[in-house]
Specification:
This protein is mainly beta and 119 residues long. The protein has one domain (21-104): Beta Barrel (Thrombin, subunit H). 6% of the residues lie in helices and 50% in strands. It contains one helix and eight strands. The strands form two sheets. The protein has a six-stranded antiparallel β-barrel. The longest helix is centred in the last third of the chain and has 7 residues, at 100-106. It is globular, with a radius of gyration of 18 Å. It starts with 10 loop residues before the first strand and ends with a strand.
């Protein structure tokens, strides 16, 4: 009887995280409301962040980070770790030509992290 040996392969991949110095704000479409946000993660079409107030699902805002200004829509917003006045929220851009990851990279707001996969 033969024994099969299964090897665990560790594959190192490069991932990026949002720099701790990234600070942004959401501006209401009418321009009369400003909400400071701390980005926590970013993907091609979406951004996760911490805010000090709950945002309505489907709400539309201008996201301003450094010199970038992008139109975004709220996908979710919930209490962050049960901390009063702290919310974990997410937004996305409906514009298929905008890659938020590239925007953040272009602004120098992504830090490379080496991560091992395949455990």
């Amino acid at each position: 009887m033969s024994q099969l040996r299964i090897r665990s392969k560790r594959i190192e991949t490069r991932r990026f995280r949002v720099s701790g110095r990234a600070i942004g704000r959401l501006v209401s479409m009418s321009g009369d409301r400003l909400i400071n946000v701390r980005p926590t993660d970013v993907s091609r079409r979406g951004l996760g962040f911490i805010a000090r107030e709950a945002l309505p699902h489907g709400g539309q805002y201008w996201l301003e980070i450094d010199e970038a200004r992008l139109r975004v829509e709220v996908t979710h917003c919930q209490s962050h770790l049960g901390i009063e006045s702290m919310y974990q929220c997410g937004v996305f851009t409906r514009d298929p030509d905008i890659d938020l990851e590239q925007v953040f990279a272009g602004l120098g707001l992504l830090e490379e992290v080496l991560q091992a996969d395949g455990f």
